Amino acid sequence: MKKSTYFQLSFMMFLEFFIWGGWFVTMGIYLTNTLGSDGGETAMAYSTQSWGAIIAPFIIGLIADRYFNAERILGVLHLVGAVLMYQLANAESFDAFYPYVLGYMIVYMPTLALVNSVSFNQLSDPSKQFPRIRVWGTVGWIIAGICISRIFLWDSESGIADGLLRNTFLMCAIASAVLGVFSFTLPKTPPSSTERASISTILGLDALKLLKDRNFLIFFIASVLICIPLAFYYQHAGQFLGEVGVDKPAEKMAIGQFSEVFFMLLLPFFFMRYGFKKTILVGMLAWTVRYLLFAYGDPDGMYFMLLIGIALHGICYDFFFVSGQIYTDSKAGEKYKSAAQGLITLATYGVGMLIGFWIAGKTTDAFAISETEHTWNQIWLYPAAFAAVVFVLFALLFKNEKVEYQQ
Fold first, then answer.
1. Which of 131, 254, 337, 349 could form a disulfide with 53 if both were Cys (CB 3.0 to 4.6 A apart)?
2. How far is the C-alpha of 375 from the C-alpha of 364, rounded, in Å?
């Protein structure tokens, strides 16, 4: 691969996740403190990720894969996203905010698959080359948090009070416009297929027959259920840190991305030594431990507990979701590989997290003291208990089996 191509793909990944990390983490703080939103409205805003994940396969399967080059679709979607981001910055109420964030996630979620398509089309050895490109996405997410917390101080106590988090949307609008224009310079990635695809193929429903396998069925159900406590983290962790007095929450949340890089490197060794079941159980258990740390930690004497809870993100995400993707790939075989991954994505980021965001919003509202104050130690016990139940059920019902890991 040419150095120029490596730079192009790396810069594309950097901006792709800089944009997402630049507004998604602090949106809960912004909605609560600037727009006066309650837990239900915050849940609606975060649920747009799930709606985007549900709609994304149609955009990719019906349009990008069959009629237009992936890099051109990527450019158009990010240019549209830049306009929507600008409108989010100017929204004065949640009612005005919601249609734009819904529209934005519908155009953004398909780009996650598109940047992968553009990358893989240029790689001769994806297993070795893609991680060196994808890691720049994690770097982009981290840099976004540092910009918000260290450079611009938008999520400082005074910055939140003055509504400066509004600027995160402007920053991401600029980044989205840059990526939109830059995308048209990316290596050409023509349509992968000219054949007409059915709706069941696009949504991955062809892989439903895998559910006849008892182990895969248990894994599938566990994947949906574990996304319910996961939604609590995505939706309320930033808001929680801000409310309890943690300085620069966006920067602190970036610790989770550093952790993700570390545990991604550790995962192959853990997976090969201990196998799939133990690996995924560690990932599930990490969710329970994280929420207990959040429940009993505080920014004064127990500050370290909050930081450890954030740092567990690498285990929570990599050991469950990445090992789950490996397991799905091994069970599906060549014929249903893509369909199976699409089905798991639809079930987790679509259905599972959609339910989770709603439950998280209701739970948070139930323990609201005021618009900007909640009994967080009680709130976090709910996802901790839920994750523990999923852990126990999976440990008892899933029969251990050997899964090959191809490095």
1. 349
2. 8
DSSP assignment letter at 400: P
CB 163 within 8 A of CB 38: no
Q: How many residues does the chain have?
A: 407
**Amino acid (one-letter) located at 384:** A
Scan for tokens 């999923």, then name that residue. Answer: 390
| pLDDT recorded at residue 337 | 66
| pLDDT means over runs of 10, the chain (407 residues) | 92 97 94 94 95 80 69 94 98 97 94 86 79 87 94 94 97 98 94 62 70 93 95 94 92 92 84 90 96 95 95 91 82 70 81 95 95 94 98 96 67
pLDDT of residue 66: 65
CA-based R_g, the chain, Å = 20
Residues ≥6 apart with Cβ < 8 Å to 323 = 267, 271, 276, 279, 280, 283
Residue entry with tokens 């545990």: 263
Q: What is the pLDDT of residue 202?
A: 59
- Run of H or E including 373: strand 373-374
In whole angstroms, give the CA distance from residue 75 to residue 88. 20
Burial of 221 (0-12, 13-18, 19+ CB in 10 A): middle
CA distance 206 to 209: 7
**What's the pLDDT score for residue 200?**
64
Are 112 and 179 contacting, i.e. CB atoms less than 8 angstroms apart? no
Residue 298's SS3 state is coil
CB atoms within 10 A of CB 103: 18
Smallest CA-to-CA distance from 192 within 117, 125, 109 is with: 117
Helix (H, G, I), strand (E, B) or coil at 370: strand
Q: Give the position of tokens 């934005």.
A: 104
CA distances from 378 to 175, 364, 375, 381 (A): 38, 9, 6, 5
